[in-house]
Each structure stands twice: as structure tokens, then as C-alpha cells.
Amino acid sequence: MYLSEQIDALLQRQLSSWPVARDNYAALQQLPMRSVSLAHSEVILQYNPVRRRSSGARVDAASLAARPCFLCREHQPAEQEMVEWGGAYKIQVNPYPIFPAHLTIASLDHVPQRLEPRRIDQMLQLALELPDWVLFYNGPRCGASAPDHMHFQAGCKGFLPLCDEVVDPALWPDDELIEASNDGFIGFTQRLDRPLFFIRTESRPLASFYLARLQVAMMLATGSADEPMQNVLCWHEGDYYNVVVFPRRKHRPDCYGEGEGRFLLSPASVDMGGVWTIAVQRDYDTLTATHLQDIINELCADNATIVRIIDNFHKT
Ligand SMILES: [Zn+2]
Question: Chain centroid to CA 110: how far?
Fold first, then answer.
């Protein structure tokens, strides 16, 4: 059976046999959503109180060490099933969804979140084998709620506005690309209101090569041996691998918190992809396009860093 069919069957089974998942997916359908227009892109706000566990989570080393890892089998509910993939990952239904169908794809081993070259290849292969899904990856310092346990996530296609916006050929004139070949390209744009790198190619080796070089270029630009701060989206569509990398500089905005003038936001891949999950009703009611753009500008890499990344990319 194809992987995508196994996953469809897994979803069906879990939604009928696991009350927590069933209730949260049913609740998701009733969640308030509203659209906000940034200058050149659309953003959807989703009021999703069960995500408070994620947007409010402590991810410092001491808090992580003190908590049972929710991606390790021994701490997962008995009802949570898995589909094993490649002898390396377990694909599971995320019981606290943002997407109408939402998966967690975690390493079988408790090893740190890091987008190493073999992880890049696995992500691309998974995207190919899961044609109805968008994979995403949150760096350990900017959005991963389990930075100590390697994992991707996946959401059903057709949900993130950015995935449709970013493939518009008008955004990618030949003479503005960072590098291109007959098989595809890597480019950078700010035209969708946040800085992003985009890789589009029919060739998996080329996608892997561009993304691995981008990792090095970002590390050099920040002068850190740690993984660069990033959020990544990856999907396969009509023969093309598509990879979006949002270069980040900050995990949470200065306005993070609750109360007057504060917002409980921990933006990661899904938010950068155009769906902002809001755990607090007041935030949902009051967030404006200006707030969102200010937060994006504060969290994403600045222009000087982008210039260095592109320069480094050419040298790697
Ligand atoms: Zn773990």
C-alpha cells in the first residue's frame, strides 16, 4: 500500500478510536477564522485555544529536561498509533491540530532537532511520497516545541496561503534568481511581506544541494555553529519539489506575553506560511495587519544578513 493510503487509513482509525483526537478535530471545524491583508499577501488568523500548550510552552533547556518528551513512545497515550517510515520515523496524527489534517513525523530515536543533510533528503523523499501534504520543519531555536527530539510535521495541502502565492512565476524573474540551472532554481524575495528563499526544481539532488548550501550560507552569515534559525516548508506538486526557507533572527517578539499591548504569539512555519494560530481571544480580536507586519519584521532576518547569506551561498 502506498504511504499516502496508509496515512489516510491511520487518520480514519485515529479519528474514530481516539477521543482526544476526535474531539480536537471536531472543534477545529468550528474555530473562528478571519483574513487579514498584508501589502502583497493574505494571512488567516485562527483562534485556537488548545494551541496554548504550544505557543505558551517553555523551551529552555531546564524546562525541557524536566518534562517527559511527548514525542517519545513511552510518554505517548496508548491510543496514539504510528506508521513507521524508512526505519527512521514514526508518522502520527497530531492530536492538537492547526490543519484539518495534521501529522507529526518524529524520529524513532530521541535525538536533537537538526536539519542535517540526511534529514534534508528524508524530508524531500517524504514530500514525494505524501503528495497531498505540505511538510514543515521548525528550527530548534525558533518554533520547535520539542527541540530535543527531531521531528517534521505535515498539514494537508490547500490550507497555507503562501504555498499558492509563492509559486507565481512573476515573483521569480530569471535575472533576479540566486542560481538557476536547466533543472530548477533558488531565489529570494521580500515581495510576499516576509523574507524567504524558494527552491523549485524537478530534481531531488538539486533541491537537496541548494538547501544544504543554504544551511551553510546562513550559518556563516550569523557566525554561529548552531543550526541557523529557520522555518521550512516543503511539498511536491506536478513533478516539482518546492522548498521555502524563512530565515529568522528571533524566536518570540518583544511583545510576547499576556495583557495590555502584549500578544501570546510564537510564530513558526505555519504562521510564516500564512496561518497564524492565536491562543488568546483578545489577541484574535485585536491583531491588525500592522501588528503582524511589525512582528514579522522583528522575527525575520534583516536585510544586511540576507545580503551576507546570498553572498555566502555563491561562495559555497
Ligand atoms: Zn523524545
Answer: 20
Report how far ligand 1's centroid is from the alpha carbon of 147 (Å): 9
Axis crossing angle, helix 117-129 with helix 204-222, rounded to the nearest 10: 140
Distance from residue 63's CA to the centre of ligand 1 (Å): 14
Cα of 77 from ligand 1 centre, angstroms: 14
pLDDT at 110: 96
Question: What distance in angstroms lies between residue 59's CA and the mean position of ligand 1's atoms?
Answer: 14
**Distance in Å, CA 73 to ligand 1 centroid:** 8
Q: End-to-end CA distance of the chain, in Å?
A: 41
Cα of 287 vs centre of ligand 1, distance in Å, is 34
pLDDT, position 316: 86
Q: Which residues of the chain have pLDDT under 70?
A: 54-57
DSSP bridge pairs for 36: 43
Looking at the DSSP assignment, which residues form a beta bridge with residue 244?
198, 233
Amino acid in the structure at residue 14: Q
pTM given for the model: 0.96
How remote is the CA of residue 151 from the centroid of ligand 1, in Å?
A: 10
C-alpha of residue 201 to centroid of ligand 1, in Å = 33
Place of cell 499516502: 4
pLDDT digits (tens, 9 = 90+) for 212-256: 999 999 999 988 888 999 999 999 999 999 999 999 999 999 999
CA–centroid distance, 175 to ligand 1, in Å, is 45
Among residues 274, 276, 227, 225, the alpha carbon closest in space to that of 247 is found at 227
CATH number of 3-315: 3.30.428.70
**How big is the CA angle at 131 (ends 125 and 134), to the nearest 5 degrees?**
80
* Domains of the chain, residue spans: 3-315
How remote is the CA of residue 33 from the centroid of ligand 1, in Å? 32
Interval between CA 271 and ligand 1 midpoint (Å): 24
Cβ(46)–Cβ(277) below 8 Å: yes
